[in-house]
Design goal:
A hairpin with a 2-residue loop joins β8 and β9. The chain starts with a helix and ends in a 5-residue tail after the last helix. α3 runs antiparallel to α4 and α3 crosses α5. The N terminus is likely disordered. By secondary structure, it is of the alpha+beta class. The protein has a single domain, classed as 3-Layer(bba) Sandwich (Chalcone isomerase), CATH 3.50.70. Helix content is 39%, strand content 33%.
Length: 189
């Protein structure tokens, strides 16, 4: 193949490996543990008129139905890159509200110790400045690991049911943002 044809081909491949949303680079593939995951969908979380973060969902295989994703085994990632500064309280309140909106009192009671562990990690992290990247990774052998800018924070929180509870924040019957839900389901790309 001639060099004149090779350069444009390489540039096309590079662009296919990532996208950009609101100035945030969203990778098409990421590594979680020993697994390579692919981008299922990504979009912007807005609250009223404010853009809060770019959210992305990574799975072993693409799925377009929330129920299929919630029942899908194996590693997963939700990535959030902040578009504005948020306090620890704002982060915690948003996560707790999203979980509460999508679970019964009985389900919440069963999740409470692990929600408390999540709150403790988020409080330890403190606020998140604009451009901070927070990832919520699920590995079946260890549970949910929270990382900030690539550095693991706190201990992994056990249970696939807990990660499913987190996913319902974005993919549940009452998602935090309906447009972001569609985007994470790959319907808004």
């Amino acid at each position: 193949m001639s060099r004149a044809l090779l350069l444009p081909l390489l540039l096309c491949c590079q662009f296919a490996l990532s996208a950009e949303i609101e100035g945030v680079k969203v990778e098409e593939r990421v590594k979680v543990g020993a697994s390579e995951l692919q981008l299922n969908g990504a979009g912007i979380r807005t609250r009223i008129i404010f853009k809060v973060y770019v959210g992305a969902l990574y799975l072993p295989e693409r799925k377009s139905a929330a129920a299929d994703i919630l029942s899908l085994g194996g590693p997963k990632r939700v990535a959030m890159t902040m578009l504005r500064d948020l306090s620890a309280r704002q982060l915690v309140d948003a996560l707790e509200a999203g979980i509460r909106a999508n679970h019964s009192e009985t389900e919440l009671a069963a999740l409470k110790p692990r929600i408390d562990a999540l709150v403790a990690v988020m409080n330890e992290i403190g606020g998140a400045k604009e451009k901070t990247a927070i990832t919520l990774d699920f590995l079946p052998e260890s549970g949910t690991q929270i990382s900030v800018d690539g550095v693991a924070r706190g201990k992994a929180i056990p249970g696939e049911d807990f990660y499913a509870a987190l996913l319902r924040i974005w993919l549940g019957e009452k998602p935090v943002d309906a447009d972001l839900k569609r985007a994470m389901l790959g319907q808004g790309r």
